[in-house]
Amino acid sequence: MDDGIELRVRHVLAAAGRGSGLGHAPPHPDGPARRRPAPISGQAIAAVVISLAVLAGAASLLRRGTLLRTGRQAVNVESAVALGERRSLVIVEVEGRRLLLGLTPVQVTLVTELERPSFASALDSSIGKGAPS
Question: Of 10, 91, 93, 119, which one is least surrounded by beta carbons within 10 A?
Answer without folding.
Answer: 119
